[in-house]
Amino acid sequence: MPGSRQRPLLVVANRLPVSRGPEGWRASAGGLVTAMRPVMDRVGGAWVGWDDDPEGVPSRVDDFACDLHPVRLSDEEVAGFYHGFANRTVWPLFHDLVAEPVIDRAWWRCYQEVNHRFTQATVEAAGQQEQTPLIWVHDYHLMLAPRMLRTELPDAPIGFFLHVPFPPPELLGRLPWRDEVLQGLLAADAVGFHTVRYRDNFVRSVQQTFHGVNALGDRLVLPDGRQVRAVAHPISIDAQEFAELARSEETQRELEEISEQFAGRRVFLGVDRLDYTKGIRHRLQSIELLLERNPELRSEFAFVQVAVPSRDDVEEYRDLRTQVETEVGRINGRFTEPGHDVPVHYLYRGVSREKLAAYYRLADVMCVTPLKDGMNLVAKEFVTVQAATGGDGVLLLSEFAGTALEFGTDVVRCNPFDVEGMSLLMEATLGLDPADRRARIRRMAEAVREADVFRWVEEELDAVERSHLLP
Ligand code: ADQ
Questions:
Q1: Is 4 contained in some domain?
Q2: From CA 419, how far away is CA 323, in angstroms rounded?
């Protein structure tokens, strides 16, 4: 029941919810931290995460009511656990093999050890609470932790949420340690996924790997009689905050600046971490075809790609950056008209929230075209910002993003692997009726507002508590 929760909450995630800015440490911006704030304020609690700051993360920051328990990792652990097993084995495997997963036994050992280190830190943090906390473990970095925690804290309610897709059994089967991973997750009281499809992939994987597991609705009854809930709850954003951000004076100022730069042009936009799952190269190829087919568009068109640097210690990510920059150079070389601005603007950096909101307001077409994506919050941010300011932008959305299931026919749905098809859809968006576009944006924003990130937290934590009461 929302708001009735009394136990302290212990979040266990790869990242701590704080970052260091020019004025010192503060709570990180972002949906998860914003959504946890009211819960933490009410019940208190702690957060266990990797301490990746050279000078160490403090045990408390002023603006977030939560004790921080940083876990220090050695260079070898970072290499094997984070860059290795998490980002080069699990990440590509769980994103439908859009890159080849690397199987390395030393990385797996390191993953086990680091999951154990997080578990120890969590047990210690739990010991400092006045009563047994609800422990909420996050994401693919820590899939073994629920089982390790169950051994140490048999009475604690334990939840797990996976922020990335869960692959079908045929793909999971490639992982030599799939049994251990599934057993790790099954020790939680509730295992959460963004979509029913990922949840069903998990259930099928469990049933194909272990004999005698019965699925009754969202409950899995294990051979020893224990029950685990496998639930689907799509993550979201703080919609109200984004709507306010959209209308803020600072966003308005940013918008005026960029509107001048792009005056008289149709603006297509991409906003992503620079990750091979996000489909940035395919998107650029579609843009190239679009400009090739429509010479008249070249001087009245701009594609802005904002790409946040990501995982640049990993070879595949460095290669991707080179490939993207080569493609941007090629397109601009081919299509820039003398005396005119370039068609593709590529920003390799994170931008402020106000600038991001200004780009969302400016865009005529938002291109969210991942090859595979657990959910994708950019799509939700875009429709919220557009609706808050009466916008009529179009959302071009990949059918392989979790978000696609939530917006029905209001999005222009695309298959990002079909580069030519996607370029034809881009062209078609230019002819859509503005009143229809505005109505679609309003409906999508309403769906986001109804299922915002606060609801996601409540539903997830309720599932853990209800499951904990089961045998
Ligand atoms: P991510 O893969 O990081 O998250 P996403 O959900 O799109 O993907 O979130 C990205 C966030 O970063 C958004 O809030 C966006 O505003 C911000 N961002 C992106 N580019 C930026 C830029 N250049 N400057 C500033 N901010 C930028 C993983 C999964 C997703 C899942 C989330 C949450 O891969 O599928 O939706 O977790 O569960």
A1: no
A2: 16
* Same structural domain, 228 and 337: no
In this structure, the answer to whether residues 98 and 232 fall within a common structural domain is: yes
Distance CA(428)–CA(231), nearest Å, equals: 37
SS (H, E, C) 265-318: CEEEEEEEECCHHHCHHHHHHHHHHHHHHCHHHHHHEEEEEEEECCCCCCHHHH
Is the beta carbon of 374 within 6 A of some atom in ligand 1?
yes
Give the nearest ligand 1 atom to 368 CA: 7
Residues 224, 76: one domain?
yes
pLDDT score at 4: 59
| Residue 245 CB less than 6 A away from ligand 1 | no
**Dihedral angle sign, alpha carbons of residues 125, 129, 131, 134:** negative
The number of folded domains in the chain is: 2
Nearest residue CA, atom 28 of ligand 1? Answer: 163
In a domain, 2, yes or no: no
Which helix (DSSP H) or strand (DSSP E) does residue 348 occupy?
Answer: strand 344-348
Q: Residue 205 carries which side chain, given as an amino acid letter?
A: S
In CATH, what number is assigned to the domain containing residue 412?
Answer: 3.40.50.2000
Ligand 1 midpoint to CA 336 (Å) = 31
**The pLDDT value given to residue 2:** 47
Clarify whether residues 248 and 112 are in a common domain.
Answer: no
What Cα–Cα distance (Å) separates residue 9 from each residue in 71, 235, 303, 364?
A: 18, 19, 43, 42
Residue 381 near ligand 1, beta carbon < 6 Å: yes
Closest CA to 18 of 73, 67, 84, 83: 67
Going from the Cα of 5 to the center of ligand 1, the distance in angstroms, rounded, reads: 29
Q: Read off the pTM.
A: 0.96
Residue spans of the chain under pLDDT 50? 1-3
For tokens 């897709």, the residue is 165
Q: Which atom number of ligand 1 is nearest to the Cα of residue 31?
A: 14
**CA 332, 334, 340, 343 torsion: positive or negative?**
negative
Position 40 scores a pLDDT of: 85
**One domain for residues 104 and 170:** yes
Who's near 247: CB < 8 A, 6+ residues apart? 388, 389
What pLDDT is stored for residue 63 in this prediction? 79
25 within some domain: yes
Nearest to 16 by CA among 2, 39, 33, 1: 33
Asked whether residue 459 is assigned to any structural domain, the reply reads yes
Atom of ligand 1 nearest to the CA of 352: 25
| Helix, strand, coil fractions of the chain, as percent rounded to 5 | 50, 20, 30
pLDDT of 6: 81
Question: Same domain, yes or no, for 334 and 436?
Answer: yes
